[in-house]
């Protein structure tokens, strides 16, 4: 178990388990017996886990409802949030009630945003079911929705009351869905922990074979890295920007490819691109750059992509959330796993 602090005070726990039933003790500590609970999930995750999680909450909660929306990034929109608001209103949810995000990053981001804004804020918990959401989006309180074709342009910082990870859910992911999470995990090692980077390479086969004992250690180490960063900078005014390594170009590629590539795949592409720039600027050695490429390749992640319209990528970069007064802060490696440097690049209109 990992405890996340805000202003030096504990605010929520990250708990690792191998089934949903083991969450019961932690849920009771949140006084769930006094609350209405709405489980928010998408159509894909619902087919695997909704019934099981509904049964879990039905034994401890005052009332249980569920809200299921069609799976896919294209549904991460305000219109889906509006439908969720209506569901909560119709079931008379008040500020003392609870939302449960059961699913991957899209589900977690939207549930968190709905919790932050419904009645000016109600509690929610994260139950992430993908590797990517377990090591990234479920931790740190960043919530949001896409606005038209612009990723995560509407959102809020809003912390969950609990993050519970049933690691067995990784077994129902496709190989591609599982592997995309490694994009964020390798990024964590590159920006903060060179020994973790080496550990990942040493345990590649066990990770790819989904050895849950090894995966639990990996996920916990990545969560510890993210916990440390978000505790130091909960609203992304400084150090938390380091987590954006690979994301500036990654988000632009994601949009240019019409979201045909998974987010973690685009993060990998962005990390490779940023590493190349770091090498070209003399910040890292050629050997380090080539090793980074080999590592992403070893974990079956893409290292190059065909871009048909480079201008569309530039336009996407211009609309990146990290733009400030026409200037974008581009994160580069300065030393493997230790320091990264913020380069400020002017984007001409």
Distinctive features:
3-stranded mixed sheet, alpha/beta, globular, 12 strands, 349 residues, 13 helices, 4-stranded parallel sheet
Can you offer a commentary on this structure?
- The protein is an alpha/beta fold and 349 residues long.
- It is built from 13 helices and twelve strands.
- The strands form four sheets. Strands 4-3-5-6 form a four-stranded parallel sheet, sandwiched between helices. It has a three-stranded mixed sheet with strand order 1-2-9, with helices on one face.
- The longest helix is centred in the middle third of the chain and has 21 residues, at 212-232.
- The protein starts with a strand and ends with a strand.
- The model has no long low-confidence stretch (mean pLDDT 88).
Provide a compact summary of the structure.
By secondary structure, the chain is of the alpha/beta class.
List the helices and strands and how they pair.
Elements: E1 2-6, E2 9-17, H1 24-28, E3 36-42, H2 43-58, E4 63-69, H3 78-90, E5 98-103, H4 105-117, E6 123-128, H5 131-137, E7 142-147, E8 150-157, E9 163-166, H6 175-192, H7 194-202, H8 204-208, H9 212-232, H10 247-256, H11 263-280, H12 286-298, H13 310-318, E10 323-324, E11 327-335, E12 339-346
